[in-house]
Amino acid sequence: MYYQTEKDLVIVKVGTNVLADTTGGREALDEQSFERIGREVRALSGATTGVILVSSGAITAGVLGEKKRRGDIDNVFELQRYAARGWDSVVQQWKQSIGSEQVSSTLLTKREIHTEAMRTKALGVMSCCLSHGDVFVVNENDTISDDEIKFGDNDTLAAAIAVECARAELFRSVKMVLLTNINGLRTDRDDATTLVSNVTDIAAVECYAGEAANGHSRGGMATKVRAAKLAAEAGIETFIADGRVDGAIGKVLAGEIGTRFVRT
Predict the structure, then answer these.
(1) What domains are there in the chain, each with its CATH number?
(2) Sign of the torsion angle spanned by Cα atoms 154, 95, 133, 118
(3) Who has the most CB within 10 Å: 16, 18, 143, 237?
């Protein structure tokens, strides 16, 4: 059973490179980023708009207090252990910044999205929570994921959720916002002035995406462009912006900053 609403849906994905603070060589969650984005999400979520927040940061939170950096860990069980330790801290940060009574959360794998019975249950819970005004916080279930059931990055997870919500016709409209640490898609990744503001032909810009990722992030611009392509095929617009900019979500949706991938 779905709780179909008259709300618009905005899926906001926030990458670890926005939520992690690496000042002075240390790793920590950036409380200011949580507070800034949480304030934006709280303002966006309401009677006419529901928000699903796809959040990274669990492994970074899990290594806090240890003399390790995420990029130095290559044992999959160690990474899964840190994900298990850190996810609750990430959720608590969102509850503090958005409001504890307004946040619901879960962990997902491909199994919950691509298996019909489980997808029906997952979408039912999400739509119910959003119909009651909750912000629904989601992450990939890194603790139990393996190659067969993992998405591999939260850009793809966000796109998969967006596509299934659109197909189920749970909302009036669906949009996806991907927040990262650069100003959007660039023709030259090292030059902020080469921003591509609007994309109507995704195939024509895929060459600019590259495959760059860092020690914190499994994604990069390439995964964002692929996610935008998946979304566009379902008629969903995608927006990419620098999540460190104050008011980034509202500004990118208004066309003031970032890159917009026009739906096909």
Answers:
(1) 8-261 (3.40.1160.10)
(2) positive
(3) 16
